[in-house]
Amino acid sequence: MTNGPPIYFGAVRLITRSLVWLLGLLVAAISLSGCGIGGLSPIFPEPVSPNGSDIYQTYIGISVPALIIFIGVEAALLWIVFKYRRSSQPAGYVPPQTHGNTQLEVAWTVAPLIVVLAIAVYSFVELQRDFQPINNAAFTVVVSGHQFGWNYTYPQDFTIHQDGTLQGEVTPFVVPTNTLIKLQFEGTDVIHSWWVPAISGKTDAVPGYDNFSWLKIDRTGKWKGECAELCGVGHSTMQIVVQAMDKSDYDSWVNEQLAKKAAGSSPSPSSAPGSSPSPSS
Amino acid sequence: MAATTVLPRPKAYDDTFWKPISLWLTTTDHKLIGIMYMVTGILSFLIGGIFALIVRLQLAQPNLKVVDAETYNQLISAHGVTMIFFFVTIFLTGIANYMVPIMIGARDMAFPRVNLLGFWLVPVSIILYYSGFFTGGALDAGWTGYAPLTEKAYQSHSLGVDFWALSIIVWAISGIMASTNFLTTIIALRAPGMKLTRLPLFVWAQISTSILLLVVGAPLAAAMILLEFDRQLGTQFFTTAGRPVLYQHLFWFFGHPEVYIMILPGFGMISEVIPVFARKPIFGYMSMVAALFGIVFLSMTVWAHHMFTVGMNTYVEGFFMLMTMLIAVPTGIKFFNWMATAWWGSIEFTVPMKFAFGFLATFLIGGITGVYLASVPVDTQLHQSYYVVAHLHYVLFGGSVFTIFAGIYYWFPKITGRMLNRALGEWNFWTLFIGFNGTFLIMHTLGLEGMPRRIATYSNEAWAATNLIITVSSFLIAFSVLLFIINIVSSWRNGEVAGDDPWHANTLEWATTSPPPPYNFERVPPVRSFMPLRDLRDSGELEVETSAQPAPAH
Prior knowledge:
- The complex is a heterodimer of chains A (281) and B (554).
- Chain A has 281 residues and is α+β, with helices and mostly antiparallel strands.
- Among the domains of chain A are: 50-86 and 102-130, no CATH class; 139-263, Cupredoxins -  blue copper proteins (Immunoglobulin-like), CATH 2.60.40.
- Chain A contains 4 helices and 10 strands; from the N terminus they run αααββββββββββα.
- Chain A has helices at 9-33, 50-83, 102-130, 247-263, and strands at 139-146, 149-153, 159-163, 173-176, 181-187, 192-195, 203-205, 211-215, 221-227, 239-245.
- Chain B has 554 residues and is mainly α.
- The radius of gyration of chain B is 23 Å and the shape is globular.
């Protein structure tokens, strides 16, 4: 029942080959240049906060059974493809007409059940460890998402405006190192989602909904993130930068902010445009 | 054919594909309606694919301005809506509309005129949705249309959201009609001997799909109606001052089962294709059926796994995590049963069989990444990133679309009477397999690196190379689909004549002519097992059934 290739088949072959070659050359060029390897990591960036490291560990834990199952099943599929194709079977081979096997079917019901139950329990332990409300934080920062930027209000009653842009870096959200800080999330217009992969997972800022996260960064440095919930035309501009400073640097930074606020408090232009989007309706 | 004993055959049926327009507009024949569903689905596939290609061009390099952010948001929304609502679901309804009545030995669907109305609501729904583009901009909040972004306060400039909501309401009504019709047909119109335990697995899959759509179609329409109340009557259901999370609950109570509405018929097709080409009966028929219903039940208890970052109680999250992971069990049963069916077989790797194995190889990856996403802590990292985009394309493209291709290559000879060109089909498969994996495999890593989905552009140079590879691969997919369209068009007109049963298949649709007459069977063949045609072939009764009608001459 094979029917012959159509006349234009030369063209099909040519286009396919050129596309596949282009793809191959691209992959080769990128791996040879050695610079563009970023974006091909099989795991998150190295975590700098304990909740991030716990998630990282959970990911690795799930990967053990996942990789075994993946490799095992794909290998079995390849075995079927090469071993049981008609051309590898003896001429006139008639397959056994089995309709099933209760023991086998029970086995591959129970085995996956055990694996997923184990993964569920393992994940639930981590969920209880790092996603419960906390009350031992050194202080709380209120993180408020709006179209298009983030506001961080500190307990000293000053606010950092991280207004969205794609040109250059946004104003960093500054935190002291080795300090447990609770992040209290607020939405003022639509839903936004705060995500810095090196710190931890996402937390949504939903209007009218209490949500929280926490961080405790163990080193100084800067980490980038983005808003992860489509929030309008400026969604991709809602960049996040978190900067961790030593305690002493942080204290002087706080004093600087307080001084700035005091200087500008009489005409009160401290709130930048876009920082006061009153909830509509 | 003994002309005295059968219904008169309308002249139109003996003509070529270009039957009179009036026939197509008014037909209640489930086969013609099925073809119209399928053609609508394929056209949507092409349109949705063009949207995707523009999106990929925009993301090929950092800071590109192929389209602006507003257009980009409309394109990604239109890509999702088109592929999910207008391609996969519609195409699968079409192929079931064509095949289910024949496979159970019926003459037509139970309610032919409901079928007619149900189909014609689909173009209404599609036109409603695209009208948004001509009224100031279509939906631009993603295919999920999360409130309050879709509320009037943030979307006052256009009617796109209203058109989308109306379109989805019409779509849901059409789906509910089709589901009712399928269930009634399968319960009431089975041929003598076609007990429930002898139904082809594709028919069982259609039962489970119909139950799902019947249950979840109404909540979807409800969400859209409440959204319209908000927008047009000033209510506060999902607004900033209202309860935006309620929208997510309603939407995903539809949205997650919809994933299974789009894959269960595919599972059914794979369950038909693998036994035929491995020359073995399906392994574990009863456990295959039980697994379908396990999935139906579980799929309605997992919706909030799309909402792990909104801040729910951890015990609630734990429940949804557990239920989500449990879906791996019935899916695993089906997967291992397919492998056991092929094991020790004498496998002929025809094009449909290649697509079936392509499906197994890629769907496995989608299934495994699904377990990562089900784990709440890990999901807070992966959620709304390119990891999710990769995962959902592994289940929807590697899953549903590969099964759809398997189904088309398998049933095209029955529907048109002609074979699809095999050489083109092989190239179609390999370019699609390479292009698909080139596009979506490395997308996982982009998500892990921190690239959120639905961003119109990015400034991170580290993501540039990966995105470029993805874009080039996506054009390989486009080329593959072009080959497929060429194959369909040229084979429909000039393909090799197929005959009644080119694959030596097991089920009733191959017992009639290709294409089948309007009444499907002159005499419905006896059904003695879930492989009735094979029984007839083995007992030598087949010649009587098929020799009467040679393939139509042209």
